[in-house]
Amino acid sequence: MLAVSVESAASGTKTLPVLISRIAEGDEEAMARLYDATSGLIYGMARNGVHDAGIAEEIALEVYMQVWRTAGSYDPGRGSVTAWLATATRSRCMDWIRTRQARFFREGLPLNVAFQMAGDSASADAANDLQMRCDSVRLALQSLPAEQRQVIDLAFFSGLSHSEIADKLDLPLGTVKSRIRVGMSRLREPLRPWRGAGL
User: Fold this and answer.
1) How confident is the model at residue 67 (pLDDT cuts 50, 70, 90)?
2) Residue 199 falls inside a structural domain
3) 3-state class of 141 per DSSP?
4) For 71, which of 5, 24, 158, 177 could close a Cys bridge (C-beta 3.0–4.6 Å)?
5) pLDDT tens track for 3-15
6) Taking the model in full, what pTM does it have?
7) Contact, 9 vs 56, CB < 8 A?
8) CA torsion angle 115 120 126 130 (round to 10)
9) CB atoms within 10 A of CB 130
């Protein structure tokens, strides 16, 4: 079981930088102690982020594998160990959410499957409403020119920054920003009925 008390994480806060230093040297005992001290907090963050116990456990384990590989890169001058772990956890949660969203929008994944993936317990009315909104978004995106749809997809469903999109597509940064701006402007009208409804 991943979860331990938050109190145990708090009580070991002062020793966490020492543990990270030892982990960077390959100390497995230090890794176990870090896990025991912080896993409740990290699992809780992941659970709140993805709303699925199994996925949250996988994310927490991935965070600790990342710690084992990259402990030497931790810089105490840039924040606490718990903040460092929290940042890694949030990043992995966002990666999972973006992957799920991208799969849903690109493949037209049935809504009941999407909800199962998220561990959601939405009512039938809410599910139908979300299905209609998602269909509207897909149709609106398909109405855009390919170059605008591509950059919006990379920005919002793959989570790339404008600079990363420019690098990936070998385009000037200004062109990427312009295409996103124009594309978003064109989406306003077809999505107007859903304003204030989560879109």
Assistant:
1) very high
2) no
3) helix
4) 24
5) 333 334 334 456 8
6) 0.50
7) no
8) -40
9) 18
